[in-house]
């Protein structure tokens, strides 16, 4: 029996704000589906050159009162990054809180505008631990 990964879906409250966050991570829109009858939009975003690995952002036009205030039940999305320190600095420079800094040179966690945990992992193994990351405390939960 074969199985093939399709996508991970997360519900978003503000489509543009959420898309801007995923663009900061380096993802790009690969396709979009708007359903007038169902009153929702699906936007698929993936790393460049990896359209087979998308996150599906689901936005309900009339709001989504059923969306939990804390999406911890979801788990997280995980992405390898070329330079974890540069990515975390880029995110911080754009107003994103680093919830779990990459103190070990290998792993960090941030949250999307919709409270989705995003794990960032250093490609190819840990970098040498460095400041300001080594001394930076956790912020909130991840």
Description of the structure:
With 142 residues, this protein is α/β, with parallel strands linked by helices. The protein contains two helices and eight strands; from the N terminus they run E-H-E-E-E-E-H-E-E-E. It folds into two domains: 1-61, 2,3-Dihydroxybiphenyl 1,2-Dioxygenase, domain 1 (Roll), CATH 3.10.180; 76-136, 2,3-Dihydroxybiphenyl 1,2-Dioxygenase, domain 1 (Roll). Strands 1-4-3-2 form a four-stranded mixed beta sheet, with helices on one face. Strand 3 and strand 4 (55-60) form a beta hairpin. It is globular and about 50 Å long. InterPro entries: Glyas_Bleomycin-R_OHBP_Dase (IPR029068), Glyas_Fos-R_dOase_dom (IPR004360), Glyoxalase_1_CS (IPR018146), VOC_core (IPR037523). It holds the Pfam family Glyoxalase.
Q: How is the secondary structure organized here?
A:
Elements (H helix, E strand, L loop, with lengths): L7 E4 L3 H10 L3 E8 L4 E7 L8 E6 L15 E6 L2 H10 L4 E3 L6 E5 L5 E6 L20
Parallel strand pairs: 1-4, 5-8
Antiparallel strand pairs: 2-3, 3-4, 6-7, 7-8
């Amino acid at each position: 029996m074969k199985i093939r990964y399709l996508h991970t879906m997360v519900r978003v409250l503000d489509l543009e704000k959420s898309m801007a966050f995923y663009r900061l991570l380096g993802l790009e829109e690969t396709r979009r589906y708007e359903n007038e009858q169902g009153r929702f939009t699906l936007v698929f975003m993936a790393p460049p050159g990896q359209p087979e690995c998308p996150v599906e952002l689901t936005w309900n036009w009339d709001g989504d009162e059923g969306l939990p205030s804390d999406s911890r039940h979801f788990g997280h999305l995980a992405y390898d990054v070329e330079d974890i320190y540069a990515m975390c600095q880029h995110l911080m420079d754009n107003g994103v809180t680093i919830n779990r800094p990459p103190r070990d040179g290998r792993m960090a966690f941030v949250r999307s505008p919709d409270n989705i945990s995003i794990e960032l992992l250093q490609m190819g193994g840990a970098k040498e631990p460095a400041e300001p990351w080594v001394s930076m405390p956790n912020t909130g939960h991840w």
